[in-house]
Amino acid sequence: MIFTDFHFYSETLGIQTAVYILLPDKAVLKQSDKPLPVLYLLHGLSDDHTMWMRQTRLEQYARRYRVAIVMPAVNRSFYMDMAHGAKYDSFIAQELPALVESYFPVSQQREDRFAAGLSMGGYGALKLGLSRPGRYAAVASFSGALRVEDSYDARSGKSDEFLRELDDAFGGEQALRNGHGNLSFLAKRLAETPEKSPRIYISCGTEDFLFETNERFVRDFGKLLPIEYHTEPGAHTWDFWDKHIERVLRWLPLERAQGVW
User: Fold this and answer.
1) What are the distances in angstroms from CA 38 to CA 126, 138, 159, 185?
2) Average of pLDDT values for 63-89?
3) Whole-prediction pTM value?
4) Are strands 138-142 and 113-118 parallel, antiparallel or unpaired?
5) pLDDT tens digits, residue range 148-160?
6) What is the pLDDT of residue 154?
7) Contact in structure between 236 and 210 (CB atoms under 8 Å)
8) What is the DSSP track for the chain?
9) Distance separating alpha carbons of residues 37 and 163, to the nearest angstrom
């Protein structure tokens, strides 16, 4: 595959930033004259845009398909237009796709646009799909932080420092519980017109500290939205995420590359 370390100035963020991009080799590109489907692959809270390439066999899995994979950096923003910080939701949902679609041979159609991520990135991927169902055909969450609002519950054990981070990202507890950063709020709204929903893949290991969070989200919305739920023994680890990014690439409606094993 072609690996690109793409650096640019973001008007939305007001800083220089970078994304990793994987593209098929020339021989695979020539197998169709259609633009490439594109997967936005999002990182977790303590990671950056390099971690999917450093910790998984992503390139080995992706070379089997005609797909572009875009891995952006968002710091610890929860993919939000932060109350006290930069506008990462606008960056991920608007500026970045427009830039990628301008510079690379990728599709601009909903049926060819996908998002996936782990932990905080799982939250971010679902937020993209639930809040903008007209732009994403499928989204996937691995060990996702699907109920961030529960962090404010006294029994959650979250530190004051972490709660201050949430305040900076979401604008405080009530803003998170009642606003568009709340996945349950977005899911309830979308459930009124479920035919508009993207396909949703959720996975979480039974030993993951976010397992009950994922269980509850699926109990609440698994019958209201097109959710495919996978659980098995596993923790909040790259072994689990490596396994599920391979599965999601098979799950997405991607063309297999010919002559690639």
Assistant:
1) 16, 11, 37, 27
2) 97
3) 0.97
4) parallel
5) 999 999 888 899 9
6) 83
7) yes
8) -EEEEEEEEETTTTEEEEEEEEE--HHHHTT-SSPBPEEEEE--TT--TTHHHHHS-HHHHHTTBS-EEEEE--TTSTTSB-TTS-BHHHIIIIIHHHHHHHHSSB--SGGGEEEEEETHHHHHHHHHHHH-TTT-SEEEEES--TTGGGGGSGGG---HHHHHHHHHHHSSHHHHHHSTT-HHHHHHHHTTSGGGPPEEEEEEETTSTTHHHHHHHHHHHTTTTTEEEEEES--SSHHHHHHHHHHHHHHS--PBPTT--
9) 37
From the CB of residue 15, how many other CB atoms can be counted at a distance below 10 Å?
A: 9
Which positions ≥6 away from 64 have C-beta within 8 Å? 249, 256, 257, 260, 261
* pLDDT tops 80 at residue 261: no
pLDDT attached to residue 204: 98
Residue 121 amino acid letter: G
